[in-house]
Design goal:
216 residues, alpha/beta, UDP N-Acetylglucosamine Acyltransferase, domain 1, four-stranded parallel β-sheet, 15 strands
Amino acid sequence: MMVGPDKNKLYPNENIKTVCYIRNLPARANVEIGDYTYYSDNSDNPEHFYEHILHHYEFLGDKLIIGKFCAIAEGVTFIMNGANHRMDGLTSYPFNIFGGGWEKVTPTLDQLPFKGNTVIGNDVWIGQQVTIMPGITIGDGAIIASNSTVTKNVEPYSIVGGNPARLIRKRFSDKLIGLLSKVQWWNWDEHKLFQHLELLVSGCDEEELQRLLQED
């Protein structure tokens, strides 16, 4: 019996070639993607996703880490730490990259702002044309509205939007969010996931979540 799409295929639905499971793209250094996370893009090249990870240089060591079951819309851009300029001088202008002797003021890595890894949790929905700045953490279950610029961390199960992105509302009560963080349905095996699909898409109350915790 089928209990879901093949998570190891690039196209989970062969009839929809605009949606791919990006974990199954050719691997890139310092990019980690969870199972079932998809990217939607109207281009005919699924690797177009990588073109939206900007200023990501392996020697800096920062990672883009995206969890499981995320929905990433077309045009989402991740700005990585390589975009940063030195800011402790009188100017932020990057003289060193233009040569002609200016490379004598090439900064060391510890002189550059470094915000750390960019981490997207599980079950995160990111709308079209969103920009995510370096070192941001977006919590599980969050929703980012289209055309937003995310400059600060986003709490789990929050809806944010705007430029800069601000909290619109929380999706659930704090107690329900706490229970969901313990249930972690994205870590279920494919059989348990299939068994509880109706619950996941329709919502449940605190008692049902408590029962799910007891199942484990």
